[in-house]
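Here we describe the complex-level prediction in full. Unlike the single-chain runs in Section 2.1, the two entities below were treated as one system.
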Amino acid sequence: MTKLVIDPVTRIEGHLKIEVDVKDGKVVDARSSGGLFRGFEILLNGRDPRDASQITQRICGVCPAAHATASVRCLDSAFKIKPTAQGRILRNLVFASNYLHSHILHFYHLAALDYAKGSETEPFIPRYEGDYRLDKATNDLVVGQYLEGLKMQALAQEMVAIWGGKMPHVSGFVVGGCTATPTVEEIATFKKKLTVVKKFIDETYIPTVYLVAGAYQDLFEIGIGCKNFISHGVFPLDDDDKNFLFKSGTYTQGRELPFDPKDIREFVKYSWYDNSTTGLNPRVGKTIPAPNKSGAYSYIKAVRYKGLPHETGPLARVWITNSVLSYHANKFLGLSDDKEVCFRDLGDKAFSILGRMIARAEEAAMVAAAMEKWTDQLKPDVSGAQEIKVPVNAEGVGFSEAPRGSLSHWITIKDKKIANYQVCSATIWNANPRDDQGIPGPIEQALIGTPVADMDNPINVVRVIRSFDP
Amino acid sequence: MSLTRRDFLKVCGGTAAFLGFSKLQILEALAQAKAGNPPVLWIQGAGCTGCSVSLLNAVDPDIAKILLEIISLKFHPTVMASAGEMAMAKLYNAAETYDKKYFLVVEGAIPVAANGRYCIVGEWKKKDVTMVDLTKRLGQQAAGVLAVGSCASFGGIPSAKPNPTGCKPVQAIFKDAKIKAPVVNIPGCPPHPGWIVGTIAHILTKGIPDLDRFKRPKLFFNDNIHDNCPFLKYYEEEKFAKTWADKEACRIKLGCKGPDTNSNCYNRIWNNGVNWCVDNAICIGCVEPSFPDGVSPLYEQTTG
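The structure predicted for the assembly as a whole is:
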């Protein structure tokens, strides 16, 4: 058995180290280690609760609108205020634009270089050598789209900024709604940009994902994972949080269950936190770092749902919602165009590197299509905001789904100040280490069985990791 | 150097300070620019990658042109093809090959508590590499250093009270370690891509631009937001917004930090000219050393 360390794992957001044990050319065990602790949950204490939506966005520069959304939903619940329809739709549109940006960026700029060879210049060399299977024409196509994708992700960020103020880190998300008052002109500009990005997703991004998938069919059997999924629900379709574009729920040991926040627990036996804080629900969660704790190997807490690791992200969402796929899926599966193909029709292929890539691409199209409808629901010259009052003492929780998975923010307010704030984010769900029972986290489990043909060029290992978009 | 005169005018344009930088001077500077793309090593500490994501929004020149024609990006954790040991070897080899010739870009703050173990950025020779050790090592050999974003420039959000991980900005780390490499701060949470590209363009053609007392290029950080704000007339008329719905009014009573903030956001505008914070909501003073503690609470009037 040989140990292989990849540190840093690049083309992700943040600092991640992956260590795998390889035996007979296959991964037999894996450890995922988050290398950064900034202490957001500590530095939020004592602040004005309204500031949380600005400060927590700085957790992630790729998906700030996700943290903004979870944070303002958390504050809405603590302040006991419900956004108006206009506020809800504006939030959806800004956040959904961040989805389009993030998904395009992930495929073309974070993941694609694992499948296509980039230009023979830095920063595209050096690279892991070996298993690149695209013919020259297809490879050139993907590299060309890398450049086109750069323009598209920037265009999606412009869409975020129209009502979000700027991107990264939006100024427009506040408790009770959104600061913007959309004008007829802005709505027209937004639609125009959406049309361009949507066309790129429908006609370029999705078919290219299937094209790549066709060349790497065996990657439908690699990166299987724990097969438990969680979704908190995202993009509310009504003002009472009854229906979402992607519903909330879990798929736990093959059973579909409603999501119950009380069943979340965070364990720290193998994380660099004080052992007294293990096993807590984030509502009463504590964050006491212990960077020298022996036996621990990550700053990520091991979050569990009903005691089990759960994968989150596009795969979890479209599996739980069982969304209808694009006609490209019919073509890929060799089915006639008139047959409605749902994500679960992929069967076991869904639990894989390529299952995650397909889920993400198809999801981008579903989000873009929904955005067209939401844009038509906007009322010109109507503010998305409401007057609010900071409560003296309150508790709140906000659930949402970042592009990369389930996200929750939890607050306790005392004397109009933050007394406790906890964040349970997507990469905490996916990239966590072993829990107190020794059960490995979702990425750790997904790595087991991954073929490693060449210890110096462990390309399949990074393909598995990046399929989660950590 | 493939930056054209047109590109350069565009990346630097839009500020009053820039008017002192004549077209003739730019032409001369470009004529003198050395051939070959300068090597850049970009490292990330306690941050969110938002500065890099912001740079992806650069226009005229766009990010593809910057990467492929203007600079030679030897190391960048978010975009580079390689990973792990291969990436670390590339980083250290580039530092040796281009000793005292490369530019170091630092994104994110540098935690020093717990011997720097709050930010482990890689492994080399079976040992963890901390951000603080890497910043010192690469800082010593750099021709110049760009601290990109408020975290690297001043500490930013991770250094907010009680600064749980002992985060420091680049200049403080250099001072402690007696590192002499020149540092230019390009703050902002994140910085506008035009500020990053404009500073790089200036350094490549004319050397380090004029800096203010916080080591920020005056080209971009000389103008007071409030004094130049399109809503200033409402301030003078004492027409103040009481809610977010009051659009034709000054935002100061909603918490706007414009009077304490110096940058050209007001005419640079963000995301390809689409919008900016004050039009949408308020300025939160993210380019200033006081961010975030000195501007909190964000949604209460603290200035003006």
